[in-house]
Write a structure and sequence with these properties.
alpha/beta, 4-stranded mixed sheet, 8 strands, 21% helix
C-alpha cells in the first residue's frame, strides 16, 4: 500500500494548489507537521489517497509521470475541470474495464482519474 504521492509545485503556489485540489477535486487539506510546514507546499487527502505538493525551486511539471486516482464521480469531475479551464483527454478504451481521463493541475502536473466500468 502506498502512503502518499508527492508532486512538485513552484514556490508561492499554495493558493492555486488549494483552489484546485480542494475546490475542484474535493480533497481535504491535511495540516503538514510543523517541521515540514516551513518548507511550503500542501498536503491533501481523500478518495483513499494522499497527495503531497512540495515546493521545488527549479520546478518543472511532471508531464508523463502521474498519480492515477479512482473516482466514482468521473463524468461530473470531468465537467467541473473542463468548465474551470483544465482540458480533459479521455482514454476509455486503453485500459480494459476502466473509464479514465487525464488532465493537468494548475502547475502543469499530469493527473489521471479513473473508475471501473459496470460489470
Amino acid at each position: 500500500m502506498i502512503h502518499h504521492v508527492l508532486l512538485a509545485c513552484p514556490p508561492g503556489s499554495e493558493a492555486a494548489s488549494r483552489a484546485f485540489y480542494t475546490g475542484l477535486l474535493g480533497l481535504t487539506e491535511k495540516p503538514k507537521p510543523p517541521a515540514l510546514a516551513a518548507r511550503g507546499g500542501c498536503w491533501f487527502t481523500g478518495y483513499d489517497a494522499e497527495l503531497h505538493l512540495g515546493v521545488e525551486a527549479d520546478f518543472r511539471p511532471a508531464r508523463k509521470a502521474h498519480p492515477a486516482l479512482l473516482r466514482p464521480d468521473l463524468d461530473d469531475l470531468a465537467a467541473r475541470l473542463a468548465a474551470a479551464g483544465h482540458p480533459v483527454t479521455w482514454g476509455d478504451d486503453e485500459i480494459p474495464g476502466m473509464r479514465r481521463f487525464h488532465t493537468h493541475d494548475p502547475h502543469g502536473n499530469r493527473l489521471e482519474f479513473l473508475t471501473p466500468l459496470p460489470a
